[in-house]
Amino acid sequence: MTECLNEEMRDLLPLLAHGSLAAADAERVRAHVAGCAECAGELAVLETSRLVLRAGAARVDVRVIAQRVNRSTAGAAASAAPVLRVERGGAKPVAAIVRRSVWRSRQLLAAAASLLIVASLSLRLLDRTPVADEGPAAIDTSVAIGTLPAPVTAGGELSVGDALVDLTSDDLSALLSELEAFDGKITLEPATMRQPIVDSPEGR
Amino acid sequence: MAYPVPGTLDATDAELIAQWQGGDQRAASALVERHAQPLARFAASLGERDGVDELVQDTFVRAFNSLDSFRADSSLRTWLFTICKRLVLDRKRTERRRKDGVELDEGHAVVGYDALDGLVAEETAKRVNDAVARLTPLQREVFTLRVTEGMPYNEIAKVVESTDGACRVHYHNAMRIIKEYLSDD
Questions:
Q1: Residue A160 host element (H or E)
Q2: CB contact, 8 Å: B99 with chain A?
Q3: pTM of the full predicted structure?
Q4: Which residues on chain B are in Cβ contact (under 8 Å) with A74?
């Protein structure tokens, strides 16, 4: 059996049979095949072989496979996502930026919550500071963090109270915003400025 | 059977991978739709006749679970073929051990005839299959990838772990053997 000596054309014959050649290349190969009996015979063998091999291969149920694959890989996408990270110019991965941003927000919220607790406790204590004749025993020391029994109002603008630990992040954010925007003046003058809190009998 | 996934028909493999990584499971379905049947044909060329659905499914599951190791210097299909081939080799090793050292009949590969759809006469199909069965496993792999999948030699080389030049030689040797067999009949 003779073979065509044009190796380039012979190399392209299976791609012509497959239909994956660019239009210009396909036209060039067809023009060659039209004048080459060896390549025409080889192309016929290739087209037949392709049909036989494709027809004989097992048919798979694509829909079922897709469903099973989706079930088996559920969750894998999320863990694979950080692979798509930007590395040029020292840019940080988006996921890392988001994580840090969330962490920073939580830190701010925690700080804000602490401030609010301290502020509310202080206001409450100031409000209940005993005058000299009541004595230190009148101070309510049962107030616990996060269990403030009643709202405390300062200057008629800022109101906190109830269970702070029950507040959501959004609530705390709103409170923080209020705190930042708060420009009211505390009209109460601390009792401690007016007079000593305690005049103990022992003269401490 | 077509299984169109809206919005994914024109997307490239890379775009579908990104969509899947973003949580869109339809993208995975589209990739399966695109590559499942070629994988089944490749499996047949490797001699797999039973459990091809499971093999194709395992190939995709393994691929999706290790996408971070996918290098875009080859096509997704090439990468899937390499995974499929490793799974087939694993299967054969397991089967070989199970059969207590009895060698598999490598020449019994390729295809059955019952799925032929009338485009090719049964006698012609038998002759072509007999001719392909005379190839070495490596020649058969290269020939199938070149003829049925239209893959370039550099991609075939990645699947069969060889060089472009060697694959080209394997292809032409396979072509010569097949033509000689068919002309002798």
A1: strand A158-160
A2: no
A3: 0.57
A4: 25
**Largest Cα–Cα separation, chain B:** 57
B137: tokens are 């496993």
Alpha carbons B76 and B106: distance in angstroms, whole number:
28
**Whole-Å CA distances, A154 to A135, A141, A194, B72:** 25, 21, 19, 63
Q: Which of B123, B97, B137 is nearest to B185 (CA)?
A: B123
3-state secondary structure at position A153: strand
Any bridge partners for residue A154, and if so which?
A: A158
A93 touches chain B (CB under 8 A): no
Query: pLDDT tens-digit profile of B54-111?
Result: 999 999 999 988 887 887 778 899 999 999 999 998 888 887 777 655 444 444 444 4
The mean-pLDDT minimum among A88-92, B24-28, B49-53, B120-124 falls in A88-92
Tokens of A167: 């507040």
Please state the ipTM of this predicted complex. Answer: 0.73
User: Whole-angstrom Cα distance, residue A14 to residue A18?
Assistant: 6
In this complex, how many residue pairs, one in chain A and one in chain B, have their CB atoms less than 8 Å apart? 165
